[in-house]
Amino acid sequence: MNAAVPPPPLLEIAGLHAEIAGSRVLQGVGFTVPAAGVTALLGRNGVGKTTTVRAVLGLLPDGGRVTAGTVTLAGEDITGEPTHVTVRRGVGYAPEDRGVFAQLTVAENLKLAERPGSAHHYDLVHDLFPELRARRAQRAGSLSGGQQQMVAIARTLLNDNRLVIVDEPTKGLAPRVVTEVAEVLQRASHRVPLLLVEQNLALVRRLARDAVVLDAGRTVHTGPAAELLADRELTTALLGVGARPGHATTPSGGAA
Amino acid sequence: MDTFVLLTLTGFGLGALYFLIASGLALIFGLMDVLNFAHGAFLTVAAYTAWATADAVSGMGGLLLAALVGTATGVALAVAVEFVLIRRLYGRPKEQILVTVGLSLAVPAAVQTLAGADARTFPVPDALAGTVGVLGAQVPVNRFALIGVALAVLIGVRLFLDRTRYGLVVRAGVEDRAMVTALGVDVTRAFTVVFALGGALAGLAGVLGGLYFGSLSPHQGTGLLVFAFVVVVIGGLGSLTGVALAALAVGLTQQYANYYAGGYGDLAVVALLAAVVLARPVPGAPRAAERLRRLLPAPPAARTEGGRA
């Protein structure tokens, strides 16, 4: 074989430990996000998926802090950096609860996301979400859950980003809306690499190239998403789907 | 009738004063959860520098210059306090309260040492010293000056909040500060601007307080601050118009109760505060529903998927 050097990972998380209010939520999370495609971050409720992405962004809630480990974005150490500095490096974030400003209009929500020094792709946003243009003067708080999710994703696509992190975008949405969100994410993934936290495995199968599984604050599996989802025993053991959850095994030491 | 008109317009004037102080407090707390007990101290110091200016330069020009000096004093103090003390204490509410309460005690004491404990007469230019007949009542002209300034401030600050990028950051930050930073905005810079704006309004209130009371004393600001806090609690942090209406309600209640209920104006304000707080819907309710939703199991799509896998 030729010595083809693999491209360096876009985001590299190594040995990440984090505490929130004295409880050790992360106890060794490590994985990489390649510079293309969708990487799914999977795991049962409460294993530390959201805490992981919040730790990457320096957004741990009050009383939370990273106690060990590093986060590297495109070769630069961003561990413990103020959130706005990390984001200005080119990271878009659509949080679990969507983080839409209810009192602001749709247009104002987008305007707030405009970062200086970046092009603002309103044409793309309005092409992907024609509804947001029609509702631009409406208060975001009066939108449906699906429309709010569109606002949250639109904010991440407005700027030129190197990485977009989307936390449970389909949570609590009707199936028809889930399909819409999936289409949007698929189109977005052609432009920018995504780190996607998701419980909906149908969506993961459709979008994700790589998968990372967390359990009890640790990385317990990394590998191609298709392989993981094809292995019924593995998905049962790691994600507790298709069978009684509870007995978590650790089939592969995935800590990168 | 003429007494009622006088009380009403005086209540409006007092409300205007409360509004100037409370709007700064509300913005500062709304954006950064900082309870600024030193806000009254800004007002006091600004009132004294304004007094010194108005004392040196007489007439209407002197007053306008005093207003400028007082406002600038408020801005300078606010920025200095934010930069030197508050900025180091973000997310540490107890320490913030200790520091700002400390300032609220130390600064008036320092003013008292430098300028004496006795109240001083604030030089009011002739144009604002007289009264105007309104519906048979003789209303001091300065009341109208206060109302006019407060209206101008209300419009100006609303324009700032609605039309500028900083205003957008402030409105969003009041809702969800963490999410604003997650969009790449340095909220601390917006906060310095808001703190400076609050200082400017407190400084202006110091000048107008001198005009309204006709005098100034080292503890004037601290005394007014108590009522400004009441206004913030009643008016809420959501809207500046809410703060303005609450300021008006507190000013009027105080005036009416002082005259018609035998000087119990301050007590009536506290009663109003209690009534509003008790009648308000519990703000925690929607959050409880949100917490419940998070506790519910994962969407069924995740379950059925395993069966097909």
Automatic annotation (TrEMBL), chain B:
What keywords sit in the KW lines?
Amino-acid transport, Cell membrane, Membrane, Transmembrane, Transmembrane helix, Transport
Localization: Cell membrane
Give the membrane topology, semicolon-separated if more than one.
Answer: Multi-pass membrane protein
Q: Which GO terms describe its biological process?
A: amino acid transport
Taxonomic superkingdom = Bacteria
Q: Does the keyword Transmembrane apply?
A: yes
Q: Which family does it belong to?
A: Belongs to the binding-protein-dependent transport system permease family. LivHM subfamily.
Q: What is the official name of this protein in its record? A: Branched-chain amino acid ABC transporter permease
